[in-house]
Amino acid sequence: MVDAICREATLRKHELHSDLIETIYFGGGTPSVLSEIQLNQLLNCLRDNFQIIETPEVTFEANPENLTKAYLSSLNSAGINRLSIGLQSFDDEVLKTMNRAHNAEDSLNCVQLAVEMGFKSISIDLIYGIPDRDLGYWKTQVECALNLGANHISAYCLTIEENTVFAHLENKGDLKIPEDDESLQQFQYLVNELAAHDFEQYEISNFALPGGISKHNSSYWLGKKYVGLGPSAHSFNGSERSWNIRNNPQYIRQINDNELPSEKEALSSEDRFNDYVLTRLRTKWGLEMSVLENMMKSLEHPTFEQELNTHLSNNNLKRNEGHIFLTDKGKFIADRIASDLFV
User: Fold this and answer.
1) Range 269-341 classified under CATH 1.10.10.10
2) Is 217 within 8 Å of 154 (Cβ atoms)?
3) pLDDT band with cut points at 50, 70 and 90 for residue 214
4) Are the C-beta atoms of 324 and 317 separated by less than 8 Å?
C-alpha cells in the first residue's frame, strides 16, 4: 500500500503545477499502523514529486493507545509537527460503549507525553450530546480537556449512524438520546468556557489558542486546492472534485498498471456557489458578499435575498463590513441555514 501511494504521487505530480504545498495530513483509516521507515518513505516521496514549503504543517491522526513514547519519538524524527488525537471522552464507560480501544487514563497520559516530547501543536477530539449524559458530565469533559495542554480542540455533536452500537441500543429502546435543547446547552457551555480560556472558535466545531488554528483544515473551508492520495481519498483542483476507489486490492492493481483509480465530477456554477456557502459560512471568515454577488451573475437565484433577510431578522445571521456571519444562535443550525441559501 505504501508503495502504491508513492506511485500515485508520481503519477499525479503535475496536477498542482507550480503551486506550493503548505500542509500535509496523514488521516484515517489508521495511519499509526505505519512504521517510521514507511512514514519517511511517504514524506520523501512527497518531497520528490511536489513543491513543498520549507516548514509545512504536517499533521498526523492517531488514537491514544498508539501514542507510546517510542512511536511519538518516531513521529518527531519523521518531521510530524502536529498531532490530531481522537480522545472522544474521558469517561471509561462511554469509551467502552463506543468500542474505543483506549481508556481515560490513556488519553491523559498520551497528551502529557506528547507535550513532554516537544509537540507544541496538539489537537484533541471530543463528542457532546452523549446519550444518558447531562450537562454536569459535559462540564467535567471540558475541564479535563482544558487541563491537558492541547492548543486545539475539535468538538462534535454525536450523530447516531446505522449499524453502530448506539443505533442498536436506540432501536432496543435502551438509549435516551438528548433533546436538541440539551445538546445546544452543552454546545453553548463549550463555546463560553473555551472563550474564557482564550480559545477562538474559528469554525463551528473547532477552537484554537493563538497560533493553533489548523492551516490544513482551514484550506478546505477557504476553498483551496488539494490532492488526496490513497484509497477513498478526495481531491479538489478548483473546478473539479475527484475521489479514489475504496477497494484496497483494486486500488493497488490499477496503480501498478499506471492507472489512476479515481472518478471526477466537474463542478457547475451552482455547485461552486453551494460549496462556498456551506464551507465558508461555518468559519470566522464568513461569506464575502462581493464574492457571492460575482458568483450569482451567472446564476438564477431569486430566493437568496429573501432567505438571507429571514435569517438576519431571526438573528441566525449578522452582517458586518461586507461579510455575513453566523450568530451564536445560528451556529447550532448552520447546515439548515446553508441549505436555505443554496441555489
Assistant:
1) yes
2) no
3) very high
4) yes
